[in-house]
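Annual report, structural modelling task.

Input specification for the 3-methyl-2-oxobutanoic acid complex:
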Amino acid sequence: AQKKTILDLCKMKATGEKAVWVTAYDCCFAAYAEKAGMDMILVGDSMGMVVYGYQGTIPVTMDMCINHCQAVRRGAPNTYIIGDMPFGSYHESVGDAVHNAIRFAKEADVDAIKLEGGVAVADVIKAIAQAGIVVFGHIGLTPQSSAAMGGFRAQGRTADSARGVIEDAIAVYEAGARAVLVEGVPEEVCTIIHKTLPIPVYGIGAGSDTDGQVLVVGDALGMFEAFKPKFAKRYADIASVATKAFAQFIKETKEGSFPASEHKYSISGDSAEFKTL
Ligand code: KIV
Ligand code: NA
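The model returned the following structure:
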């Protein structure tokens, strides 16, 4: 299939076809996602937890994101790829933010970038969008500011908090974001955002009233065992498949049944000569 554009994503919104995306950080899983027909792949800063074993996304750097975006692009050459801007890459100055967004486009061939925040980052979104880069907003539960939120907590559960999330949605749209991801809010809040914004509204832990859904690959495939968010659904159990396979490899090697004859090279020369080596 041909790689989608932002116009295709808008068309899907118009026709009511849900867009589905998943995170990926490496070439193999990117290829599986593309083969399955995933509409988009997010190279999420969730790599901090899923790939690197950190407690959160704060330690993730620009170079880590660029490297993983490049690997994902090699694995999924025909899939719409979103690069996630890591903590610190768009917080110091607008100039810095534009510079880093441009790195994603130039060095990693992404189709869009995503960054967290609403009203507070409207100027940053505006500047990046004006550089011609497609920006996805990300509002609600924003893991990069989990310290300020007091942890990975759902947002918008009170009227005051919900108002804030809705204001953030409008701010990112007005700043020029072409799509927005709403994370960790009651369905009612996302319904209002979905009704209000003319751009695609995607959700993770935000209910059904969206233009599509995203899951973190570690959650979707049961690879990431440190914790499971309420909104994550496990579609596979890679952790147990991999652990069982490793255990079998250990067992067969210890008992000598691996490698077997089909795993061995045969000599192509005169076997008699080999006897005198
Ligand atoms: O980094 C990530 O995986 C995300 C999720 C919310 C999809 O941003
Ligand atoms: Na992220």
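The chain has two domains: 6-237, 241-275.
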